C-alpha cells in the first residue's frame, strides 16, 4: 500500500538541506533580534568596550533614553533668562525652601533648565527674589 517506509520518514523528518539551513538562519536572526531588543545601547563602528559594558547593569543606563521634548518656554517662544525679574515665574521653579526644582519636576529641556537656573540665581543675586522662601506676595495669595 501507501505506507511510509524508513527512507521516506527520515527524509520527511530531516527535511532538505536548504530547509534546515533556512530554519537555522531564521532562528539565529530571531535570536539576534531578541538580543538587540535587550541591548538598548547602539554600538557604532570603532566603539571600544569592555566585557562589563555588555552586562545588564551597564545596559540599564541606556534603556530609558528620552528624546528632548518641547517645554513651556519652547511652546511660548520665551527665553527663561528674560524672566529673572518676574518673581511669579521664578517662584514656580523653586521649592518652598528656596531650592531650584530639578528638571524631572519642571519638565524643562536641559537647555531651558540651565537657563531657568541661571535666571533664578540672577534674581537672588540682584535681591529681587528671596533665597530661602517663596516671595511674600505669593505667600499671601496662597494663605488667603
UniProtKB/TrEMBL annotation:
The entry's protein name is: Small ribosomal subunit protein bS18m
- Any one of the GO CC terms: mitochondrial small ribosomal subunit
Q: Which family does it belong to?
A: Belongs to the bacterial ribosomal protein bS18 family.
Q: Does the keyword Ribosomal protein apply?
A: yes
**Pfam families for the chain:** Ribosomal_S18
Q: Does the keyword Ribosomal protein apply?
A: yes
**Could you state a single Gene Ontology molecular function term?**
small ribosomal subunit rRNA binding
* Keywords on record: Ribonucleoprotein, Ribosomal protein
PANTHER family of this UniProt entry?
A: 30S RIBOSOMAL PROTEIN S18 (PTHR13479), SMALL RIBOSOMAL SUBUNIT PROTEIN BS18M (PTHR13479:SF40)
The record's section on Gene3D superfamilies has: Ribosomal protein S18
Single GO biological process annotation from the record:
mitochondrial translation
Matching InterPro entries: Ribosomal_bS18 (IPR001648), Ribosomal_bS18_sf (IPR036870)
Q: Which organism is it from?
A: Lasiosphaeria miniovina
Amino acid at each position: 500500500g501507501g505506507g511510509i517506509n524508513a527512507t521516506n520518514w527520515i527524509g520527511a523528518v530531516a527535511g532538505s538541506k536548504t530547509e534546515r539551513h533556512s530554519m537555522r538562519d531564521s532562528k539565529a536572526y530571531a535570536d539576534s533580534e531578541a538580543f538587540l531588543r535587550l541591548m538598548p545601547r547602539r554600538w557604532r563602528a570603532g566603539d571600544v568596550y569592555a566585557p562589563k559594558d555588555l552586562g545588564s547593569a551597564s545596559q540599564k543606563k541606556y534603556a530609558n533614553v528620552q528624546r528632548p521634548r518641547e517645554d513651556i518656554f519652547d511652546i511660548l517662544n520665551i527665553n527663561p533668562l528674560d524672566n529673572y525679574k518676574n518673581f511669579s515665574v521664578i517662584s514656580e521653579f523653586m521649592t518652598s525652601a528656596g531650592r531650584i526644582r530639578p528638571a524631572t519636576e519642571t519638565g524643562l529641556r536641559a537647555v531651558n533648565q540651565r537657563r531657568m537656573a541661571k535666571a533664578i540665581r540672577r534674581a537672588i543675586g540682584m535681591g529681587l527674589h528671596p533665597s530661602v522662601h517663596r516671595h511674600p506676595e505669593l505667600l499671601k495669595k496662597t494663605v488667603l
